[in-house]
Amino acid sequence: MKTRNLLLLVALAAFVAVLLLSLGSSVSQYTDFASARKAQGEVHVVATWVRRTEAAYDPARDEFRFYLADSLGTETPCVYPDPKPASFETAERVLVQGKYQGDAFQVSKIQLKCPSKYQETELAPEGYGTPAATPNPTQPS
Amino acid sequence: MRTWPGELGFALVDASLVAAVVAAIGLLVAWLQPTAPRAWARLGLWAFGVHTAATLGVLVVLLALIVTGQYQYHYPWSHASNSLELRFVVASLWEGQEGSFLIWMVWHTLLGLAIWRWGGSWRLGVLGVIATLQAVLASMILGVYLSGALATVLFGAGVLIPLGVVAGRFWRGGHRLETAALGVAGLLLGTNLVRGMGGFGARALGTWAYGLELLLLVAAAALALRRTHRLGWPLGTTLLLALVVSLGWVLASTPLGGWKVGSSPFLLLREALPDTPVFAQNPDFVPADGTGLNPLLQNYWMVIHPPTLFLGFALTLVPFAYVVAALLKGELTGWVKPASPWALAAVGVLGVGILMGGYWAYETLNFGGYWNWDPVENASLVPWLTGVAALHALLAYRHGRVNLRLAATLLVATFVLVLYSTFLVRSGILGEASVHSFTDLGLSGQLLLLLLGYLGFVSILLAKRWRELPAPPTQNPLLSRETFLLLAATVLTLAAVQVAFATSLPVINAVLGTNAAPPPHVPRYYYHWQVWFALAIGLLSAVGQYVFWQRSERGRLGKALFGPFVVAAGLTVVAMVALKLSDRPFVFNETYQLHLAAVSEQGSGLQTALAYLGTALLYVADELLLFAALFTVAANAVVLWRLIRRSARTQGKVGGSLAHIGFGLLLVGVVFSAGYETTVSVNLSPTELGADFPAEARGDNVLLLEGQPKAIPGYRVTYAGKQVAQAPIGPLRVVREAADYVQVAFADSLKVRYRVDVPRNFFAEFTAQPTANGAAPAPAGPTGAELERLRTFIETNLRLIEPEPLDGRTFYPITFYPLRRTAEGAIEEDPSRAFTLTPEAEANEQMGLISHPDTRHTLFSDLYVFVSSIPKAETDTSARRIEVDEVRLRGSGDSLTQGPYRIVLDRIAVVEGDLRRPEALIVLQANLRIWKGEISYPAQPRFLIRGTEAGHQDARIDALDLSVRFEGVAPEAEQVVLLLQQEIKPPDYLTFKALQKPLIGLVWLGAVVMSVGFAVAAVRRSQEQRAARVVE
Description:
heterodimer, A: alpha+beta, 2 helices, B: alpha+beta, six-stranded antiparallel sheet, five-stranded antiparallel sheet, globular
C-alpha cells in the first residue's frame, strides 16, 4: 500500500513536471524588436502602433502593412497576411507574434489590448443611433 | 420617471439573500442534528420557499424592465434596444454579468424545488448546501458598498449590543418572541421610511432593505397567527441573525465608496453614469433608446446557449451538494444512488451547452471553427471532463464498492471547477487572452473569496472524512470492470488537469508575477497533449465496455474484440489509402520539420533523440487516434446491438454504449475536420500579386471584384455585388416617430429586416387637411391605410430606396462554379453544380467588421466561407470618380432625357436682384424635377451673377449620387445650361476566406449520439432511484 502510494505520487510529480516543461518549451517571454531580430523562431512583442504612419490593408496582395514601436521606442515595419483587425486604431497596445523576414517583421498573430471593450460608458443625449440617410421620395418642392 | 420597479428589484434581491441565509442555517442545523426541533427544518424550507419566490421575482422585474424598455435603468439601456426582436430582448437579459448570475440562481432555485419534492431523506442537507451558494450568488447582484471601520464600530456598538441584550431576554421569555420580531421589524421599517423622507438617498441606503423587513413582518405575522408551531429559539436566533445582517447592510453601506458587494442590475442610468453632463441639466433624462445587444450576439444561439450552459453549471451543484451533505453528516455512502441521475444529467446538459457554443461559433460567429481552445471554452470543458471522470468513478463504486474517495473528490472538484470557470470568465483576469469574457465589474475579490471559500471548506471536509470513505481496491484483477472504470476516470482527470493547467497561464502569471506568453500555436499545443489522452480513452472505452458487460477472461475477451478490431483497422487502412492521408498535410504536424532542424542544430544528443522520437510518435498519432476512435465505435456498436437484442430489461442500459459510440464518432470528426482542413481561398493568379511576392507570405484571403470571376483551387468564384432587399416585403412596423420623420421596419422575403426613414410630409401629402386657421397642416402620423400604401411604394421601389439593413446586416452572395478535370485532362466548369453562399458582414462603428460565415454542408465535407474585408464606408469619397454631362433646356416646361434621368424644368425664378440691373447681384434658380423611373426628385440649383463674375449653388440629390449645377444661360439660343455631375462609386469588392472541413458532420452527429446516451443513462438511473424509494 505504502509503495503504491509512493509510486502514484512519483507518477503525478512526473506528470506535473512534464506539463511545466512542455509549457516552458513552447512558451516564450515577451521581448522587443531588437532581440526579435536575432531570435530564431517566432517571438511575442508588446508594441504600439506608430500613429503618424499609415496602416493600410492591400486586398489584392492580402497584406496589412503598418509600423509598430516597442517599449524601447524601436520602430519597425510589420506585414500581416490578413485584413486589418477590428479596432486596430483604437487599441492601446498591439501584441504581435512573428519573426523578421528581411527588414520587415512578419506577423503571424495580432492581439489588441483595447480600452474597456463593449462597455457602454458614454451616453449620447439624443439616445443611440442616428437616422440613416435615405432618399426623400416625392418631396413637394 | 418611474423608479419603483427598480426599488422593488433591489428589495427582492435583498430578500432573496437574507432568505437564503436563513434557509441555509435552518436546513443545515436540521440536517446535522436529527434531534433538533423540527422547527429548524420548517424554518429552513419555508425560507427556501421565500428565497425561491424572491429570486423568481427579481427575474420577473428585470425581464419586465428590459422588455418594456425602461431605459432610465442602466442594465436595460446597455443591453436592450427598441428595434431588437423580442427573443433578443429576452436574450439581452443574460448578456451582462448581473443577468447571467440571475439566470444561474433561477436554475438553482428550480433544481432546489425538484430536490424539495423528490429529494427524500436527503433534501434537507442538499437544499441547505444549495442555499449557501444561493446566498453568495445573491450577494453578487446586491450592489451595495461597505465602508470600512466607522461603519463596523457603529454597527457593533449601536446595534449588535442592544440587540444581543434583547435577544437574551426574549430567548428566556420564549413566548414574547413574536411580538419582539414584529416590533423590531416595524421599527426598522419606520427608520428607513424616515431616512428616505429625509432625503438621504433612500434607494442607495435603505430602500433595498424594505424587502427584508417585509419578509420579517410576514414571518412575525405568520407566527403570531399560528402560535401552535412554537418555533421558539431556532427562529429567534435565526431571525435575529438576519436582522443583524440587514441592519449591518443598512448602516455600513454608503452609496459612494468602500468595498463593493455585488453589482446591481437595478441601478438607474444616472447612478451608473453620474458624470454624464446631461444629468446635470436634467436629472430625469431618459434616453429614447437603449444601446442594444452586441451585434455579434444577435443570434438564435444567444437565446438558447447561455441558459443551457448555466443549467449545466447549476446541475453540477446538485451532486456536489449531496457529497457535502454526506460528508458533513457522516452518512458516507447513501448519497451515491440519489446523486447518480443528477450527475449524469449535469454532465449531459453541460456537454450539450458546450457543444451548442461550439456549433454557434462554427455556424454564425466567425471563429473559424467549433473549438479554439479559448480560455473561456476550456473553462467549461474542464468541469465536463472531471464530471465524466466522476461518472466512471461512481460506476466503479456502485459495482465494486471500491474507491468512493475518487468519485467524491471528482464530483466536488467538478463544482469547484465551475466556480473557477466563473472566476476566470468574470474577474477580468483573462484580459485579452480570451475573445469572449465578460466586462470586469470589479467583483474579482468577491469571486475569489467565493472560489477559495468553497475550495478550502470542501478540502478540509474531504480531508477529515478521507479515512472513513471506502478506499481504492488493494488488489484487483487487471481485466475487471473496476480497473477499467478507474483507469478511465484517471485518464479523463489527467486530460482535465492538462487543459486546466494551460488555461490558467494568466492566473499563473498573476500569482507568480511572471510574464509568460501563451504557446505560439495554441490548438497545436493542446493537440500534442490531448491526442494521447483521446487515444487512451478510445482504446479503454472499446475494451472496457466488453469487460463491463461480460466480465470476460482473457481468451474470450480477445475473441469478442477481434471483430471490432479488424473492422476498425481495416477502415483506418482504407481511409489512409483511399484518401491518400499520408499525402495530405495534417494541420497539427506542420512545424515538426522546423522544430527538428532547430533542435538538431542547437540541442544536445539527448534532446535531438527525444525530438526525433517525439516527431515519429506524433506522425503516427493521428492514424492511431483514427483507429482508436473507430475501434470504440465498432466495439460499442456490437455491445449496443447485443443489449438491445438480449431482453427488454437490458434495453434500458444502452446509455453507456451510446455515449461511447458518440464519443468515437466525434473523435473521427475532429481528426478529419480539424486535422485535414484545407484552405480553399488561395489566389491562383500569382502575377496579380507582383513577381516579388513570396509564396509563403501569401495570405488566405482572396480579393473578389464585383463582376470579375477568379479561380481558386477547385472553383471559379464570382461576386455580383451585395444583396439588396428582396420583394415581396412583409408588413411595415413603425419603430420610431421623430419630429420630422418616421422610421419603419419590415422583413424582406429572405427574412432580413430593413428600415426606412420616411419624412413626415410623405404622410402629410396623403392626409393634408387644412387646419381651421389656415396654418400649415400638423405633421400627420401614419395610419393603417397609409402604412399599406407606403409598403406598396417601398416594395415597388426597393432598388431606388435601398433600405438600410436594420441590424446593419449585409449579405454578400458569392457564387462558386465547381471545376472538374475532363477525361482529356482539361479543366472545365460544371454550371449545373454551381451554388451561391451568402456570408454576412457588417461594418460596425465600434467593433469593426463583424462577419458571419455561410457554410455549404455536404455529406462528407463542409465549405466554410466568410467575408474578411470590405471597402471602407461610403463616407470615404477619395476613390470616387465624377462623370459630367451637359444638358441644355429651352426654358420653362421643357424636358429631356439624359441617361437614366428625365429632367423637367418647371420654371426659372429670379430669387434676388433685378434682371434690368445687371451690375447688382442677381440670383437665378432653376426649379427642376428629375425623374428616375417612377420617382421624381426636386432640385433647385442656383446661378449667381454680379457684373462679369458668376457663381453656382449646386443642388445635390443624395439618393442618386447626383449633383446638378446651373452652369449658366445661353442668351443667343435662349437655353438654360445645366451640368449633371454623376458620382461613380469605385467597383465594389470584398476579400473572403474559404475553408474545406471534411467530415465535420461527424462531430455534430457524435455529439448528439453522446448526449442521447447521457439522457438514456440519466433516465434509467432516476427510474431505478424511484423504484428503490417505492420499495422503501
